[in-house]
Amino acid sequence: MISRSTYLRLLVGDAACLYFTFFWVTVLRRLGAVNQEFLIEHLVFYSLVVPLWLWVFNLCGLYEPRFFKRLPRATLGVAVFAASALSAFVIYFISGIFDMPTPKTVLVLSAALAWVLLVYWRGKAQAWASGLAQDLAPSCLVIEKEQLSVMNPACDESLKAAAFDGVPIYVDSTFISEESGKAPLERIGPQWVIERVLGRHQTQIGYHIAKRIMDISFCLLMFIPALIFGVLAAVWVKLVLGGGVIYSQSRVGYRGKIFTLWKFRTMRDETLSTDTARAQLAVHGQDSSGRVAVLETVTVKSDQRVARGLRLLRRLHLDELPQIYNVLRGEMSWVGPRPEQVLITRELESNIPFYWTRSLAVPGITGWAQINQGYVESFADARDRFAYDLYYLANRNAYLDAAILVRTLRTLVAADGR
User: Most CB within 10 Å of its CB: which of 3, 107, 114, 352?
Assistant: First the structure.
């Protein structure tokens, strides 16, 4: 885990970059109007906006251990963009209170300068991040679960000392899960699943209601842009492929219920979009246990089945737009494990313990596994994806859902769809 001093150091550095950016952009824009009253008013305004930016940065994962040693510039760019967009709404509502420059110009200039400064600062931070392992050592106590099965005096003393010193205490499975963002499948068993997944599922009634309300609200918010892009996509598909523009496919949904998922057609051979052809499994290789190693029906990079004129549609994930209808019907959510084909689900359930727990969440258009792993091409990929899904099931809440939605922007900007 991250020590408090390391986290605070990074947080203060980011805040300093933002204050510097906002101050100088505003001063340069209003050079002739700078006075004491002007500076005080804007300092108050910055004190509202900077925490907002830091909150968005946290949503984007900029303070997770994996980004300490190497922060992708694209991830930082998406964080700055999202923070700028949210700041625009704030400025719109409170701009009448303060005498400030036009938000459009200030935000654009601030976002550009903030990105440059943060890239520089995070690069400098790598110098001390290289010693992160030493910094992490005393920051928490990790206990192996085997030590907890019997009374152990040494373990008891360690727990006592750590508790009295205010040091966080973790079971190894929880520590690995928080550090990697996925459940350690080799370290968990029925007890972990019951306590972390099944137990939470039964007690999150308020969360489920709030999430359904947010799903519907987001559908209404996205209705106009989705309609515009949907019509353009439908015309595009019609021109390239002819015939129908939408195809349906049976998927496994909440609590194992089968539902019909809708997508825009992007493949020339329409037979590939039927359940029989698309849900068949073919063994191209097996691991040491004889389990399926490669799934034939998944879409691979530069898949030849995709019509050349429609590759961009898939790369931008615009072929998923009809699934908003699934969200309105309650068959899907904006955030959740991706729904899998029926036969593939049955195959994986027979080979991966607790795989059925994925169906305890309403399947989503985007999800924790999608933003962290991407596409599945083998049994090993499917098992790794389930580890991410299980982490989501064990930790899901409104904040994590919001973080997933914000981080999905990166996949859209990167246009990495297949």
Answer: 114
Number of residues in the chain: 418
Name the CA dihedral angle for 141, 143, 148, 150, rounded to a multiple of 10 degrees.
-100
**Which residues, including other chains, have CB under 8 Å from residue 400's CB and lie 6 or more apart?**
368, 392
Residue of higher predicted confidence among 228 and 160 = 228
Predicted pLDDT at 189: 87
Q: Can you give the three-state secondary structure of 166-235, one letter per residue?
A: CCCEEEHHHHHHHHHCCCCHHHCCHHHHHHHHHHHHHHCHHHHHHHHHHHHHHHHHCHHHHHHHHHHHHH
State residue 141 phi and psi, 5-degree precision.
-115, 125
SS3 129: helix
Query: What integer is the mean pLDDT of 219-225?
Result: 92
Cβ neighbours for 14, distance < 8 A, ≥ 6 positions apart: 54, 57, 62, 118, 121
φ, ψ for residue 39 (rounded to 5)? -65, -40
Task: Give the end-to-end CA distance of the chain in Å, rounded to a whole number.
Answer: 35
CB 16 within 8 A of CB 142: no
With CA atoms as reference, report the closest residue to 69 among 120, 9, 131. Answer: 131
Among candidates 9, 18, 11, 16, which has minimal Cα distance to 83? 18
Taking 90 as the threshold, does the pLDDT of residue 224 lie above it? yes
- Distance CA(266)–CA(3), nearest Å, equals 48
Confidence band of 69 (pLDDT split at 50, 70, 90):
low
How far apart (Å, rounded) are the C-alpha atoms in residues 142 and 173?
9
393 and 367 Cβ atoms separated by less than 8 Å: no
CA distance 343 to 250: 10
Lowest-confidence pick of 132-146, 199-213, 319-333: 132-146
CA dist 52 → 42, 232, 344 (Å)? 15, 35, 43
Residue 141, SS3? strand
